[in-house]
């Protein structure tokens, strides 16, 4: 089959690889119907050391089950399924506590012998714990929105949930990528009435406003902080959803958080050390967040997607074939595209 | 009157200063009955640059109201009162949200023209919002326990509350100072059944066990982390109460926190940057804590002190006169004393 591999920074290719096969009785083989490129895929696109073996790419996909192992009970051949960006048994204590990305028997796509989602098919470990059946046809117009349940919508939701967003909390969202925009949508869905979006790409922040942002701050750094403080009587907001992952975004978050507030990070931190001294401590701020336990949230979010109450699939502004995936990376890196959907 | 001043690292003196006087109609003058030296007073004791004017010391005290300004309504001359380590109006929005240490009209003792508690008397700004009447006589045996409501008991309680300690959460407390021991007592009081105390001073950890610690780990660093993991099937605890304030304590906290857990800091951080990369983010850990909003907690904690349900005053293992305060610093710094009570 054909699959997308990265061989080093800027070097993405679609190559021939062996078809995936069932290995464990808990496995399923899924034929990919729609996948996409993630903002986090751009991190290795910038920094990966050259590797002649390459690594498979992609961790978001919707597909049709082709074959299941003997112990798989909840999905069967022909089902259209959504796959979270991590696989898990959804049964261990960490999963039951709502931290599926730390499943004792789980892992991530494109690692440890498991393929990636930017491919024609993939072996899914722990299929019962991982896959969620979506009651639509493969041709459904809902497919892009269902695909966002793999990662970006659930991740934006996680940012808002961990921050404790509700109707009484003011919100700042940092970042106008797909996750940031869906953090706006998630905050709105959880009842927030005041949502300040920090982002400087007009087409994106316009979509953010349609998703529920009430204010847009295009400035960054100290200037951006000053602007948010100006919008909030000098106080900042109760919650800050940090959807970028770089140090300047964290520093902005610190600057715009209100006394007693929460900074919730879902942008994978591309740094180790950060300021957690008096700036965080002195005002009783809380720093939370992490990889979204997508599986934990799909049951709650899926009905709103199916009913059309929300339309998170609007973050996709381009569609390519599998063979064009390398160009999808290029276009997202050049910010020509917000998020690219891949149709194998 | 006589008051304790610090003139530089290791240089504490009791000197003559003018008697405090009412300055605002919201002020009260309080004659100190009992004060104490705080672990956090040892930070400047180690590092303060020489200053010939010195700075007043002390932020924990119980006293008797001598005189009140025209607008003071809730306390009157003769009342025995407890003073939180910060003063506040207890009426602004930050106070009402439970963050009294960030009061819009508040501040800290021994700063901005306000004296310290290690003195014969002090001017109390915002007396109505700051002072809490204790219905006992000045000779009461409860005085040491009431004094812990100024800071250390309320601070330990804050660590436990912000961490979300309850009957279902396992707890690690880092630090066997007065705050650490009272964090143990607080966790126990909130229902925790498993409380691991990390500390290496036997007399202190013995008291910790009487307060509710179920396990003591004397090792520090990687060895200490390994020991806690060994006690928790390799997982760590749901909550970690960091009661020290130095980087190694934070690193221990990171090492012993369970997936999805909370690190709650109440030791004032003596550092700025710390590890908030994948070690914190990858396991969905939350970092919280800050200066305890003591005034917010006194109403809840005072009845348990008055009834004898808890006896936090046991952290005092030495009593000195005001003139002996310099020796109290020395003894606490040398770890001869856990916490020294000062009787002006």
UniProtKB/TrEMBL annotation, chains A, B:
<keyword id="KW-0560">Oxidoreductase</keyword>
<dbReference type="InterPro" id="IPR011032">
    <property type="entry name" value="GroES-like_sf"/>
</dbReference>
<keyword id="KW-0862">Zinc</keyword>
<dbReference type="InterPro" id="IPR036291">
    <property type="entry name" value="NAD(P)-bd_dom_sf"/>
</dbReference>
<comment type="similarity">
    <text>Belongs to the zinc-containing alcohol dehydrogenase family.</text>
</comment>
<feature type="domain" description="Alcohol dehydrogenase-like C-terminal">
    <location>
        <begin position="178"/>
        <end position="273"/>
    </location>
</feature>
<dbReference type="Pfam" id="PF08240">
    <property type="entry name" value="ADH_N"/>
</dbReference>
<keyword id="KW-0479">Metal-binding</keyword>
<dbReference type="InterPro" id="IPR002328">
    <property type="entry name" value="ADH_Zn_CS"/>
</dbReference>
<dbReference type="Pfam" id="PF00107">
    <property type="entry name" value="ADH_zinc_N"/>
</dbReference>
<dbReference type="InterPro" id="IPR013154">
    <property type="entry name" value="ADH-like_N"/>
</dbReference>
<feature type="domain" description="Alcohol dehydrogenase-like N-terminal">
    <location>
        <begin position="25"/>
        <end position="134"/>
    </location>
</feature>
<dbReference type="InterPro" id="IPR013149">
    <property type="entry name" value="ADH-like_C"/>
</dbReference>
<protein>
    <submittedName>
        <fullName>IMP dehydrogenase</fullName>
    </submittedName>
</protein>
């Amino acid at each position: 089959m054909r699959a997308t591999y990265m061989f080093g920074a800027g070097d993405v290719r679609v190559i021939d690889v062996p078809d995936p096969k069932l290995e464990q009785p808990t496995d399923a083989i899924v034929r990919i119907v729609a996948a996409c490129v993630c903002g986090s895929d751009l991190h290795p696109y910038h920094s990966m050391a050259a590797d002649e073996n390459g690594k498979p790419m992609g961790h978001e996909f919707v597909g049709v089950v082709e074959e299941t192992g003997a112990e798989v009970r909840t999905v069967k051949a022909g089902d259209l399924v959504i796959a979270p960006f991590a696989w898990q048994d959804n049964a261990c204590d960490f999963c039951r506590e709502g931290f599926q990305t730390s499943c004792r028997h789980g892992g991530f796509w494109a690692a440890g012998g498991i393929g990636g989602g930017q491919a024609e098919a993939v072996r899914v470990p722990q299929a019962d714990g991982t896959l969620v059946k979506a009651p639509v046809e493969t041709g459904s117009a809902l497919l892009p929105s269902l695909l966002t349940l793999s990662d970006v919508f659930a991740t934006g939701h996680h940012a808002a949930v961990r921050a404790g967003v509700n109707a009484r909390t003011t919100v700042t969202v940092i970042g106008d990528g797909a996750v940031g925009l869906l953090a706006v949508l998630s905050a709105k869905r959880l009842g927030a009435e005041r949502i300040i979006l920090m982002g400087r790409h007009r087409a994106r922040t316009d979509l953010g406003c349609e998703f529920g942002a009430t204010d847009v701050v295009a400035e960054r750094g100290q200037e951006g902080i000053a602007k948010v403080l100006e919008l909030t009587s000098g106080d900042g907001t109760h919650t800050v959803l940090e959807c970028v992952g770089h140090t300047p975004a964290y520093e902005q978050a610190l600057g715009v958080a209100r006394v007693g507030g929460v900074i919730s990070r879902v942008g994978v931190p591309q740094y180790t050390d950060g300021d957690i001294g008096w700036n965080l401590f002195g005002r009783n701020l809380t720093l939370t967040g992490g990889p979204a336990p997508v599986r934990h949230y799909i049951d709650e979010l899926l009905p709103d997607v199916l009913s059309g109450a929300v339309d998170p699939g609007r973050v996709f502004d381009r569609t390519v074939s599998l063979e064009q995936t390398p160009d999808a990376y290029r276009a997202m890196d050049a910010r020509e595209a917000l998020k690219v959907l891949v149709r194998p």
